[in-house]
Amino acid sequence: MLTSIRNLSLKKKSELVDKMAKKTKKTKPSSKKYALYESSGSELKRKNKFCPKCGDGVFLAKHKDRLSCGKCQYTEFMTKDKKE
């Protein structure tokens, strides 16, 4: 690409630079840590379980069939009891 830019005319080079400069940055959504807690009066209750290896402060993420820690990769599988 660098060699092809050298061979272009000055007008085409400026057009190419303008196109390259107009790329927009993707923004990440903000974290919603308030969704992990539930408050009632002056009490604060945590919705998710803590990781038994990492200790308090690190939550286990809820997936469809398991709970997993993002820090140490600890995983608990949820059992499905079929009642018929």
Question: What's a concise summary of this model?
Answer:
With 84 residues, this protein is α+β, with helices and mostly antiparallel strands.
Which helices and strands appear, and what pairs or packs with what?
Elements: H1 2-6, H2 10-21, E1 37-40, E2 43-46, E3 50-51, E4 55-62, E5 66-69, E6 75-77
Antiparallel strand pairs: 1-2, 3-4, 4-5, 5-6
Please provide a written account of the structure.
The protein is an alpha+beta fold and 84 residues long. The chain has a domain at 45-73 and 75-79. The protein is 20% helix and 30% strand. The strands form two sheets. A four-stranded antiparallel β-sheet has the order 3-4-5-6, with no helix packed on it. A two-stranded antiparallel ribbon has the order 1-2.
